[in-house]
């Protein structure tokens, strides 16, 4: 059984005030005394790292703290951009282990393996779930981490965010472990013991998809080249998507791709970042030949509806010790002028529950999908709202 606590602070520039906020809300010396095993999951505005406030908080807590920077998030009924949110998991029978990798500037599987083995060695058996905190690097996408960590761990269910921040180029997006922070390292948290993780995914409603489903006939990794034998550019034109004077499709990243791998697992969402001169789509994840896809369109109402529906499903699924949720930064920007609307929906819904939670934005979402036999298959997602309930 897992018990959880949460705390939030907005004191970026005052270390002692930030520490005081967190310690008072956690009340670890009072009725919220920790159980035998504990760990903290953190999400914060990047300036908490620059000011030293995040490190000061970690130094004063009697357990490991792991997490990422974000553009917005919250917990304990407080939501916003310039804050630090902390979710503490504590248990007598569930054990926790954390580790951070060496720099992962290239696709070196040994670096990821060493990170996993360092955490797994602290536990008496195979973990029930892995929570990954992934650096946002141009040289590697989320699919690489998901595929490699699945192989390394023996398919331990994997969940977590890719780090982001408030800058246009995300140069301050960082992974955090015990007050230290890196732009190029993977952090992982393993849970071992009698815990049964449950996963929920919200992407886009069926009525927001174009009716045609097409077959992927050519692709290379995350570059989608052709569907039904025609270039992606030609296919987008056939849907009536308008181009500007330069031949670009404005807001192309607001047209998510829903990909069915045709292997019995649930479909996943992919985002299009740009079109190449050849008419290929550069996407936020791999789209293999043999899969089929549909294209949809996002709007603020659709984002709120999928969040509401997915979170209600998670809340109705049973009693949980904690809920951890991440939403794609693309959903944040697609909300237009009311960019806190999705977080406000989370806050409102969670006021009806006594389950503690943390919510934050990410640059990609790692979450297992369910196969035909109920088995879990780890996947990387874009433009998606994902939930882990434990």
Describe the structure.
Helix content is 23%, strand content 33%. A hairpin with a 7-residue loop joins β17 and β18. α4 packs across α5 and α7 runs parallel beside α9.
Mean pLDDT level: 92
Q: Main sheet, how many strands, which sense, barrel?
A: 8 strands, antiparallel
As a whole number of angstroms, the C-alpha radius of gyration is: 20 Å
Sheet/helix structural class: alpha+beta
Helical content band: 10-25%
Distance between the termini: 9 Å
Percent of residues in beta strands = 25-35%
What is the multimeric organization of the chains shown?
A: single chain
Quick overview:
With 390 residues, this protein is α+β, with helices and mostly antiparallel strands. The chain contains 9 helices and 26 strands. The longest helix has 17 residues.
Which properties best describe this structure?
single chain, 390 residues, alpha+beta, 8-stranded antiparallel beta sheet, 6-stranded mixed beta sheet, 9 helices, 23% helix
Set down the secondary structure blueprint:
Elements: E1 3-9, H1 15-26, E2 37-44, H2 47-51, H3 53-60, E3 64-69, E4 73-75, E5 78-80, E6 84-91, E7 95-100, H4 109-120, E8 129-133, H5 142-153, E9 158-161, E10 175-177, E11 180-182, E12 187-192, E13 198-202, E14 214-220, E15 223-227, E16 230-231, H6 232-238, E17 257-260, E18 268-270, E19 272-275, E20 281-283, E21 292-295, H7 300-316, E22 322-328, H8 329-334, H9 341-350, E23 356-362, E24 365-370, E25 376-381, E26 385-389
Parallel strand pairs: 2-3, 8-9, 22-23
Antiparallel strand pairs: 1-6, 2-6, 3-10, 4-5, 4-23, 7-12, 8-12, 9-24, 10-11, 13-26, 14-15, 14-21, 15-16, 15-20, 17-18, 17-21, 19-20, 22-26, 24-25
